[in-house]
Write a structure and sequence with these properties.
Strand order of the largest sheet: 1-11-8-7-5-6
Largest sheet: 6 strands, parallel
CATH class of the largest domain: Alpha Beta
Helix content: 25-40%
Strand content: 15-25%
Mean pLDDT: 95
Number of domains: 2
CATH superfamily of the largest domain: NAD(P)-binding Rossmann-like Domain
Structural class: alpha/beta
Shape: globular
Low-confidence stretches: none
Order of helices and strands: EHEHEHEHHHEHEHEEEEEH
CATH topology of the largest domain: Rossmann fold
Radius of gyration: 19 Å
């Protein structure tokens, strides 16, 4: 068996083409969606992420609003910047790029984002609405990485109805919220969440129809424990920097050899990463469309 690839780059490109048409329709009504990014400090990885997000904006016609702040900024001054974006009509939605410097309270900062402008879909109010809504259409911003996984599978016609999905990792970016999406009646999967306190993780993995590996531990999933035909999404990221060249290499959570076991496989990089970025645009465009209705 050789796994078919769940190509996040190709899928994101198709979604961007649709978004460009939707943005053009909004502009014809006099509405231009705007995505803001708040970058504190000069972390190279964060700078790279932000650049990528603004390239995406340019490709679909969304206005970029870039806020770059020194790492030494006080919490009060940062909150003032967020308040300005909350009240800026040109900003449809925005994100605060993580991680933040240690002297800043990340939870307090994220909760200061207006829920309606929460482009990441991770504000406690939006997550709470997702918890409360099992049956109806979700109209609030959705968490980007989990919905990116769902849209990637849907693009390839993979139905999760009744499937047993094992999620590795309980981070707020994907591990915790993805179960909220997958157990909605429209998808109807059964989800097992594994973390550092889970006993017999290999036993859970062996029973999985779908594995979402999002622990951020290099090659922690041994393909030999997976059952043939499993669908695997490798989401976790580990960066290793060569001390001699300074070049960073990205590794996923799934060890090599998964292609010989899985029926479908989302690699890392090139799988869910591009989907996460395009879902950010989806949230912004969807919010603009709702305001225009």
């Amino acid at each position: 068996m050789t796994a078919q690839i769940l190509d996040g780059r190709a899928t994101a490109k198709a979604i961007k083409a649709d978004l460009a048409e939707r943005v053009a329709a909004l502009k014809a009504k006099g509405i231009t969606p705007g995505l803001g990014t708040v970058l504190v400090g000069a972390d190279p990885a964060s700078q790279s992420y932000v650049r990528g997000k603004h390239r995406d904006c340019e490709q679909v016609g969304i206005t970029s609003i870039q806020v770059e702040l020194p790492a030494s900024i006080t919490e009060a001054d940062l909150l003032a910047e967020l308040d300005r974006l909350n009240n800026d009509d040109a900003c449809t939605g925005y994100i605060v790029q993580l991680p933040l410097p240690k002297h800043l309270d990340t939870n307090r900062i994220l909760e200061a984002i207006s829920p309606e402008k929460d482009a990441d879909g991770l504000h406690p109010m939006n997550l709470g609405r997702l918890v409360a809504n099992v049956n109806d259409e979700v109209t609030t911003p959705l968490p980007c990485t989990p919905v990116g996984c769902v849209d990637l599978l849907a693009h390839y016609g993979l139905d999760l109805q009744g499937k047993h999905v094992v999620v590795l990792g309980r981070g707020v970016t994907i591990g915790r919220p993805i179960g909220l999406l997958l157990t909605r009646r429209a998808i109807n999967a059964t989800v097992t969440l594994c973390h550092t306190g889970t006993r017999d993780v290999h036993q859970h993995l062996a029973a999985a129809d779908v594995v979402v590996a999002a622990a951020g531990v290099k090659h922690m999933v041994d393909p030999q424990v997976l059952k043939p035909g499993v669908i695997v999404l490798d989401v976790g990221v580990t960066r290793e920097v060569d001390p001699d060249t300074g070049k960073a290499t990205i590794y996923g959570d799934v060890a090599p050899g998964v292609e010989d076991v899985a029926s479908w496989y989302s690699p890392n990089p090139g799988g869910v990463g591009p989907m996460t970025r395009v879902e950010l645009l989806q949230n912004v465009v969807r919010t603009a469309e709702q305001r225009a209705a």
